[in-house]
Design brief:
The protein is built from four helices and two strands. Helix content is 47%, strand content 17%.
Length: 70
Amino acid sequence: SNIKKELHSLVKSVGENDRVIPPEQADLLSSALRGSHKLILPDSSHPCYLDRPEEFHEGLLRFLRSLPGN
C-alpha cells in the first residue's frame, strides 16, 4: 500500500497497560512497516508519555539517533 512506501521509519510507543491500543496491536503495526520501532513503557496506560515521561523521551531520542544521517 502507499502508506508503507511513505513511512520509512516510525516509532510506536504504547503503555504496557494501554486499553486503547494494546501492545499486541503495536506488534501488528511494527511487523507491517519496515524500519519501525516499538517502545512499550511498563506500568503505563494509553498516554504513556504522561505516565513515564523520562523513559518516553529517552526512547524517542534513541529512535531519532538511529535514523540515517544522525
